[in-house]
Amino acid sequence: LSFANNLDPRVKSSLSEEELIFPPYNALQLQTILANRAGRAFKEESLAPGVIAKCAAYAAREHGDARRALELLRVAGELAERKQESNITIAHLDHAEEKIEKERFIDVVKTQPKQFQTVLFAILANKGVEVSTGDIYNDYFKLCNATAQRPLTQRRVSDIIAELDMFGLITAKVISKGRFGRTREISLALPDTIIDEMERILRSDLGL
Description:
Layout: H1 9-15, H2 27-41, H3 51-61, H4 66-82, H5 90-110, H6 114-124, E1 131-132, H7 133-146, H8 154-166, E2 170-176, E3 182-188, H9 192-206
Helix pairs in contact: 2-3, 2-4, 3-4, 4-5, 5-9, 6-7, 6-9
């Protein structure tokens, strides 16, 4: 809390400041939360059997976040309404998860610096193929020339690759090359349904 920074040390000591850890919800707890909210937001007959349970399972898999579960149910409801369908089904829920995941990936990429986008585009250009860090750097270097950017060092590009892996945009596996040292084999981790749109966004942002 911000006010705690201005307290006298003796007062802080007497307050015995303690960090509270809130564990993630499990699937059963999420089902209870969802059922309670759904009862107020939807007509009882509008939810197909299994929707609440599957929605809770999705969210439990994603770190037990109740907000994630509620967002999934809300988007599924919007999709059903858009199609003028009276029931929210498992199919709507699957579509909602895909839509949310797609938007998350796009938001991440759109808000990153141009160099980050350039490295990702170099990886994207090798669709479906595992490539080494060195190969990615060569492609990245050419892209920098094509887009009038000053290339970063290979070490910095390697750091960006690690960030891309952390965001879940790519998969980077460390491979031993024996006496030649180690490298990373890199491949896209994006859903097939988003690759073409991601390429279009990157081309536009990079002026390609």
